[in-house]
Amino acid sequence: MTGRTVDASFRRMLEGYSLTSAEVLYRMPDHPTLLQTFFWQFEDMAPDYPRLKRFLDHWEREIEAMIQSVRVMHQGLIKPKEIQLVKDGGTLH
């Protein structure tokens, strides 16, 4: 079994990253009565959400829209208890 590598996305799942969805409700200065939505899916690590925090920091600095609220949904795809290493799986003839 030499030369095999683990898929990078699977390795990230083992590190705790998984699919995260963020729904941002915001208002533009030129239409303050209109509530708009931005929906984004990405890989992030709960509960700190470093990628989401970087995005929201960027939004605050660079975008004129005022954030009303942010709703975050996150589901870990793989949990440590779900992985079991098998030394010998046997042979099938």
Can you put this structure into words, describing what you see?
With 93 residues, the chain is an alpha+beta fold. The protein has a single domain, classed as Roll (Ubiquitin-like (UB roll)). Helix content is 23%, strand content 39%. The chain contains two helices and three strands. The chain has helices spanning 8-15, 50-62, and strands spanning 17-28, 31-45, 66-74. The protein has a three-stranded antiparallel beta sheet with strand order 2-1-3. The protein is elongated, with a radius of gyration of 20 Å. The two termini are 20 Å apart. The model has no long low-confidence stretch (mean pLDDT 83).
Summary keywords:
alpha+beta; elongated; 93 residues; 23% helix; Ubiquitin-like (UB roll); three-stranded antiparallel sheet; 2 helices
CATH architecture: Roll
* Mean pLDDT, all residues: 83
Task: Give the CATH level 1 class.
Answer: Alpha Beta
How much strand? 35-45%
Helical content band: 10-25%
Cα-atom Rg, whole angstroms?
20 Å
pLDDT < 50 stretches = none
Taken together, the total number of domains comes to 1
Largest sheet: 3 strands, antiparallel
Structural class by SSE content: alpha+beta
**Count, helices:** 2
Number of strands: 3
